[in-house]
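User: structure tokens for this one?
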Amino acid sequence: MKQFDITYFHGPFPNYIADENVVADIVESGFTLVPLNYTTEVNKKALPVLKKFGLRAIVSDPRITDIYTEDNLIDADATVKEVVNDYKSFDNIIGWDIVDEPHASKFPVLSAIVNAFRRYSPDKETVINLFPNYASPEQLGNPDYISHLEAYVNTVRPNMLSYDHYHFLGRENRNAILNLDVDERERLIRLSAEKMEDRAEFFENIEVFRSVALKYDIDPMLIVLLTEHGSYRNLTIGELYWEVNMCLAYGMKRISYFTYWEPVADPFWQWTNAMCDTEGNRMQHWYDVKKINKAVMSAGIHLFNTESEAVFHIGAPEKGAKSFEKYGAISSIDGENGVIGFFEDGSIYLVNRDFAHGNTFTLHTDRPLSVFADNRFVPSDGNTVTVALGAGEAVLLKA
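Assistant:
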């Protein structure tokens, strides 16, 4: 990755994506990167409009999808070359989106596709989004999650890492139809969503993903929940802040929301409360995400240029996480229910782990810290810093 970006998964319908009013709304809500997952014709129609509004794009082309679906290793090189040449006149493409949540049996064809893009489009990234850790071994094609990540990295040799994790369950008045008359992949996805309490694996997942990204020196990103669907509830702005700020505390280099646009009606998923409805009308989450994106963009840009060193939990740690211990300039912390990330350049990102209530933290340090405000670091007085954070909110500091 070359810069910090905020993007989404599932955008406007094909007949809307080149509409300037729709694109203007995408920009206004704080997105910098747009996925184009349409026909070649629609992708090409949209790219100049995105460029007019200063937006960059990740392109998914049906010809690459066909190579992947058919396990066509023989034609992968020639097809990728054809696709790259076909889009060569568009200079706002930063990468190629290949597939979402592949089974391990698909790693060889993904390797062939990624290697071909590395040859013919070496300055652009290839995006493959991976399953979360609550996917079953049957879904993964590997016995456990860490084996899956290791096999993926060593076989495909990606230039970035992406996964999704949808934490907030417990949708009221679910009344969904668990229709299993679908293909096997969709059946497993639906079964994994049928749970009525928040998942316990969020931090375990992001800890493992962060460690693999650091081990192989690959930039990571996370797709977080936004749109109410299935058993996933309608999120508060505190829950949305919580997801995004945890990404930054754990060193994610890009943030993505699922979804921007409400998908086509489905009796099982029962989509609602996206950022925009099926005709592009703004919903409450459009305003929520605009506020969040504005609040985190500067911190995200700053943290993009440094590497995650350590992450601790303040108070009782969640599953997979470590309790805070003296680290860097901070000797102790008064407070409960927080997450604190440390970075190589001395930056510190402190998040309120409570997504329903505010929290106050007092940091005791061996030297004064600076607090990031109004796009600059402001030195504090003395060796104690107290910060009050709203639900899910965060503060950037520097030693």
